[in-house]
Amino acid sequence: MSTKLHIKKGDTVFVNTGEDKGKTGRVLEVKPAEQRAIVEGVNLISKHTKPSAKHPQGGIIKMEAAIHISNLQVVDPVKGGPTRIGRRPNDKGKLVRYAKKSGEEIK
């Protein structure tokens, strides 16, 4: 069972709380079943890897871990700050997301 999320891949988001509070980044992946998203440059972890074809040296790699979507807000395309998201039909009758702060449609 997956629910409709206010965040999609490619959105620019603001982190509300946690260790990375105040940071913004682009969403790389969304996991609807887990209610989590992976955001570029946010929630970095150190992963210990064995030597492989991809990483011949092995060692410790910094990578992004998933963050719960309740800790993220989409950045307003006009005003630039974090905003809540609403849904309304556009002129063609298709349901689109819009920023509640500016009223601007989010692509």
Can you characterise this structure?
With 107 residues, this protein is an all-beta fold. It has a domain at 12-50 and 58-77: Roll (SH3 type barrels), CATH 2.30.30. It is built from no helices and ten strands. Strands 6-3-2-1-7-8 form a six-stranded antiparallel sheet, with no helix packed on it. The protein starts with 11 loop residues before the first strand and ends in an 8-residue tail after the last strand. The mean pLDDT is 93.
What radius of gyration results from the CA coordinates?
A: 17 Å
How confident is the prediction overall: mean pLDDT? Answer: 93
Straight-line N-to-C gap: 25 Å
Shape: elongated
List SSEs in N-to-C order: EEEEEEEEEE
Number of E strands: 10
Main beta sheet, described? 6 strands, antiparallel
The proportion of residues forming helix, as a percent range, comes to under 10%
Question: Which strand order does the major sheet show?
Answer: 6-3-2-1-7-8
Q: With helices defined by DSSP (H or I, 4 residues minimum), what is the helix count?
A: 0
CATH second-level architecture of the domain at 12-50 and 58-77: Roll
Beta-strand content: 35-45%
Unreliable stretches: none
Structural class: mainly beta
CATH topology of the domain at 12-50 and 58-77: SH3 type barrels
Indicate the CATH class of the domain at 12-50 and 58-77: Mainly Beta
Write out key terms for the chains shown.
107 residues, mainly beta, six-stranded antiparallel beta sheet, 0% helix
